[in-house]
């Protein structure tokens, strides 16, 4: 058994699991309910871990993880609001230049 991946990000975790499922890579998830009873801890605090049951998949699986994490982090960055350095205006992620003063991001 080898630990492949851990994340507190439920969406990232879900993406990893469905990709491993799709490739029929054998894995198990630990700490799925580490938060204990509902209400005891915020569910975000329970870090989930994906473990490979068969280590021989490790090279392939880690490439899969890399791709998912890279994609997920890039998506997150591009969807964030940003603040203009010139005038301090808040801009939505869709804008590449400040809608107020036209300064670049
Ligand atoms: Zn501005």
Instruction: State the low-pLDDT regions, or none.
Output: none
Secondary structural class: alpha+beta
Tally of contiguous helical segments: 2
Spatial sequence of strands, sheet with the most strands: 1-3-2
Measured between the Cα atoms of the first and last residue, the distance is: 46 Å
CATH topology: Alpha-Beta Plaits
Q: Report the oligomer.
A: single chain
If classified by CATH, what would the architecture be?
2-Layer Sandwich
User: What is the CATH first-level class name?
Assistant: Alpha Beta
Envelope shape: elongated
Please provide the count of β strands.
Answer: 5
- Main beta sheet, described? 3 strands, antiparallel
pLDDT averaged residue by residue = 83
SSE string, helices as H and strands as E: EHEEHEE
- Rg estimate, integer Å: 19 Å
Could you explain the architecture of this structure?
- It comes from Alteromonas macleodii (Pseudoalteromonas macleodii).
- InterPro entries: DUF2007 (IPR018551), Znf_RanBP2 (IPR001876).
- This protein has 105 residues and is α+β, with helices and mostly antiparallel strands.
- The protein has a single domain (2-80), classed as Alpha-Beta Plaits (2-Layer Sandwich).
- The termini are far apart.
- The chain is 32% helix and 18% strand.
- Helix 1 packs antiparallel against helix 2 (58-78).
- The radius of gyration is 19 Å and the shape is elongated.
- It has helices at residues 10-22, 58-78; strands at 2-7, 27-30, 48-52, 82-83, 90-91.
- Strand 4 and strand 5 (90-91) form a beta hairpin.
- It contains 2 helices and 5 strands; from the N terminus they run βαββαββ.
- The strands form 2 sheets. Strands 1-3-2 form a 3-stranded antiparallel beta sheet, covered by helices on one side. Strands 4-5 form a two-stranded antiparallel ribbon.
- The protein binds zinc ion.
- Zinc ion (ZN) is lined by residues 84, 86-87, 89, 98, 100-101, 103.
